[in-house]
User: Fold these one by one.
Assistant:
Number 1:
Amino acid sequence: MKLLTRLYDPSSGKILLDNRDIKDYQIAHLRQATATLTQDHLLFPLSLAENIGLGCLSSLSDTAMITQSAKLGGAYNLIRKLDKGLETNLKPVQTTYQHNATHETHPTLMAEYERLEKSADVSGM
């Protein structure tokens, strides 16, 4: 996949796409026409919708297109099971810090801290 999306070029031989050397295509056009999710993927600290929308910046706020992309990618049924659906953030930015607070001394504060920093885990779903 990394060769087909030109993240890497082959060290020998060549890759043909429609009988043309893949190097003849503009990288931007190849990447616009494809979507890949490798085992070493990167999630940005954004919602699932925003992570999907990053694949086509001109449609970043097009919910219908993002939903269709999730369906075509096979992720839509999993996303529907999440409490916040497409608005779920799998990897939140740490937004709060606490020091010297415990569940015993500040239970309300600690509950709010945990709510803010909770991430969704979709492994095994």
Number 2:
Amino acid sequence: MPISLDLFGREGFMKAARRASEVLKRWVSSGEPITIISHVDADGITAASIIASCLYRLEVPFRARIVPWLDRDMVEELASGPEGPIVFTDIGSSYMNLLAEGLGTREVLVLDHHPPVGKPPPGWVEVNPHNHGLDGTSDVSGAGVAYLVVREFGDEMRDLAPLAVIGALGDLQDRREDRSLGGLNEIAVEDAVGLGLVEVSKDLVFYGRETRPIHKAMAYTSSPYIPGISYQEDNAFAVLAKAGIKVKEDDRWRTVSDLSEEEKKRLLDTIAGFLASRGHSPELVNKLVGTVYTLVGEEPWTPLRDAREFASLLNACARMEKPDVGIAVCMGDRSRGLEEALSLLEEYRSRLARCFAKMQEPGVVEELGRLVVVHGGSWMSDRMVAAVASIVSSGMAGSGKVLVVYAFEEDGKHAKISARVPPEGPEIDIGALMRDLAARFSGLGGGHDVAAGARIPADSVSDFIRALGEALGKAEARKS
């Protein structure tokens, strides 16, 4: 039997998206309440918001729930909950067997970009780039998958494209030349630009480049993490002084956007020297220049103006356990919801700063062979694990190490573990390794080839980390 080539590549993916759209249209016509389940990060919040916005415009009742993972108890809760269709966004594909077992008789859409594990039951529709030979870590995010499904409803949904751009940036999919988005993400970028909602340019990508004093913009930058400068304002001030850059002009704090091209070059050269003096690769400065996505409809001087900053705001809502506030902002709340989100962002930044201060203490960060381990233990909230892992790993390019960060949940019974393969790191599928090891230790795990997580019994952490190091060694041995 010949293989149908239209299953593969972009066209195959778009056929799956159109099929999912037809299913969603059928549900909409019935008027039955729809449940949205999504992942607890910026990509998951934007993905849920895209579906929610579509349903709201069509006057279809819905409920949205943001979750950190799916387990048997959660699936049983969904099964015994309100009847009606369920849409999973930015989550689901890696839990397909579990979902099929508990929800096999329900109407379900799975719109995800994580590597699939298992086949959907008859009648379900799964839209996932991995099913079509595409890369879920750089070709399209969970928000992008959701957008490409609702885009099929017609032009009236294309103004949701900026949310897909924000989600992709929040998922660190700006992996193409000049830190740009590529693959299927380009469709959302093109739609947003075409509608005059987003402008694309090239500039320094410091956090708050239009809104914060230069030294704060440098210290708040975490993608990439700048060792010695991120979360250390004093060092940022010192670097600016050495570069001969004025931080104030007529008693007004200057922002990154105020810098001349010559000042920007001096600043990058000085940062490169600062990194080299501390034993870090000066090449990291190349990641401080890239493609900027400006949301032109948002107010200047707010964190919503820059798409990366918008994503950081949503991540803060997620990590501070208020993802509903993030959804409200995505759906247009620029009053009370935005005020609360800004407050959450400040607290989130404070928590991150405390985490990085704690990491300077002896024994908190440890090199164990092929691993760099951050022992979050009980002092780090398990909600901060993924954020810390993503930030730290962005500054580990070329280290040849894999980063592991863990922390115990409040009850002390389970641990949350995040693993990251830094840029130019070992060529291994960390998602597959984490999934297999978590199952061995009576837990759940999985994710992308460069970013993954697990939830395991707390008393198994040491053995898990040891087993992960051994598995990495075996994987690298097979490749050599």
